[in-house]
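Hey, I was hoping to borrow your eyes for a little while. For a while now I've been wondering how a particular protein folds. The fold is given in discrete form, as structure tokens running alongside the sequence. Could you read through the record and tell me how the tokens relate to the sequence? Take your time with it, there's no hurry, and the full record follows here:
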Amino acid sequence: MPISSKLTQALCGFDPDTDARPANALLLEVEDHDAEQPVHFHRKGQLVLAARGGVTCEVPKALWMVPPQHAVWIPGGMPHSNRATENAQIYFLFIEPGAVAMPSECCTLAVSPVVREMIRLLAAQGGAYEPDDATGRLVSVLLEQVALSPVEQLHLPISGHPKLRHIADALSVDPADRTTLPEWAARLAMSERSLARLVVRETGLTFGRWRQQFHLIVAVRSLSSGLAVQDVASTLGYDSVTAFITMFKKALGQSPARYISQLR
């Protein structure tokens, strides 16, 4: 089976929009390879929770990383795709529009242990419930608590502009690529100044900050899947582990080991 079809096959026959109840949940297990769900959308909003491993969600103009014990909120009607690391355990919580006040834009939520356990319980119980039975009351509390989850920023602004997409695709193939802005400008037949302005206009970040944010996305995803700090630093092309740890700590306020330990 092609890797990209694994999540799609796991979701075959499951359509969250056919259920008008306030919320329903689904557990997906990814085994020995990365798996990807192609671009799709649905009426319900979707919370993507990584209980184990990491998930990357792509929406128009942004990539969102879902570290363990965090979730990404995707509003209803927004096209998106999901990619999971190997051996990941993912929960999807689908929320009916209007059931609770949720953000109108994509965002990363820090999910409390109580919310995680309620999502696990709802997924284990299946979809059938009534508003006034035990599961219905659980859903009411769950939605109330999800809406209170604090928002965290861990995403990469991306662009559909062909020149910037070319750079993003190259970095995806080789995260250690250290091609400078002037070198990219020459490759793309642009002036350095024009390319610098284009990056800022399309992403809101300078080229250096944008590439660093890409490295953070790759780093958190890789660390979440169990790779050692030394291996991640090497994958991203850092001259030393110390340089990688310094970048990570400046960006996220903690060392990689401490950050991942707290997530778990």
Summary: The first helix runs from residue 6 to 10. The first strand starts at residue 23 and ends at 29. Confidence is low (pLDDT under 50) at residues 1-10.
